Structures are given as structure tokens and as C-alpha cells.
Amino acid sequence: MARELGNLCYNVPGESIYGEITLNSIRQLTQYFSFPDDDWIHIVDIGSGAGYMLCNFAQCLLELGSERKIHLTGYEISAERARLSREIIPQLLEKDCKDMIEWEIYQADIQKQTMLPRTVTHAVSFDKTFTPALLAHMEKLQRSCPSLTNVVSNHKYPEKYWDLVARVPCKLRGSSQVMSFFVYKKKT
Ligand SMILES: C[S@@+](CC[C@H](N)C(=O)[O-])C[C@H]1O[C@@H](n2cnc3c(N)ncnc32)[C@H](O)[C@@H]1O
What we know:
Blueprint lengths: L22 H8 L9 E7 L5 H12 L5 E8 L2 H14 L8 E7 L14 E4 L6 H12 L6 E4 L8 E10 L6 E9 L2
Parallel strand pairs: 1-2, 1-4, 2-3, 4-5
Antiparallel strand pairs: 5-7, 6-7
Bound molecules: S-adenosylmethionine (SAM).
């Protein structure tokens, strides 16, 4: 049964910045996640923007009833968005789930990173403008991450290394647009 969390999301002022995926769509995506036996679920958002997607994934995972603690990591190239997300995230994470969630935002270009934190279990990303070179670099970082189980992206991943678990039509906030997101599982 879903845990009562109250209104974790959108209880801070601010409209959609770039058409974030809606909470309901993220709920559908998390249904396809697999979970390792670790004590923690560690989600990384590559291009974490204002932090909404990270918080929404955390809420949906808590709703699934997991007792695991959740670690959120964002990488964001824009200094302004990284700063904004550090203000927004504590407001989105209500008091009653603060004990369950740790988070940090790195203001960084993912292209310059040589690895992701080793404990990352799930990686999400959403951008229409990521270049093929950037996507290839992200995929390599994710593939070499030892604990990583699932990725969610609006881009396709190579079948050689990833099994497609689901293709989910997702709604974007403040838009009638529907965009396909893919949930992949790393091949073992
Ligand atoms: C469409 S937004 C998505 C934000 C967030 N994931 C969400 O859905 O709420 C994509 C973000 O990726 C960031 N970004 C683009 N290139 C990046 C890079 N090379 N490294 C880190 N972040 C990047 C952009 O600045 C932007 O904030």
C-alpha cells in the first residue's frame, strides 16, 4: 500500500521550467524498476535541472513501500539551475520523509566526469538536446557503474549492453505533449 507522504511535490512556488515529466508518468516508470539487495536506492539524475525529477522519483519509490533509504545525486551543468535546485529540493522533501532521503547536487559537466558514484543503482536523464557524443559518454559511465541496475531516458540505449524493459509514454508538465521514455536494465 502506498505510504502517506502528503504533498511532497509542487508545494513550492514555481511553474514548469522546461516541461518536467509529470509525477504520474514517473510513477509508471518506477513500476518497471528492479531493486538490488542493497540497503540504499541511489538515483542519479544526469542533467538534474531544478531537481524536480529527482524528488519525484524519490516520492514514487517511497510510495512503492520500500523501507530502503534513498540517496539522490544530481549533475547539472548550469550554475543557476544547480543553485535553484539546492533551494527547491529541501522544500520538496517534506519533513516526514527527510530521514529517508539524502541528496547532493554537483554543478558539473557530465562529459568531464570519468565515473559515477559506485553506489548508484538507478540513473535517469531527460534532455532533447544531448549530443550523440554526450549520450555515448553517459552510457559508458552508467554501464561501468557496478551497482547500477536500471536507466530511464528519452534516448535509446545499445541493445548489446541493455535490455529494454518498457517504453512508457510520459506527459510533460504544462504541455499536452507526450514523450516516450525507455526503461532499460543493464545486462549482467
Ligand atoms: C530538460 S532538463 C531536465 C532536468 C531534470 N532532469 C528534470 O527532468 O526535471 C536537462 C538539463 O540537463 C542539463 N545539461 C545539459 N547538458 C549537460 C551536461 N553536459 N552536464 C550536466 N548537465 C547538463 C541542462 O542544463 C538542463 O538543466
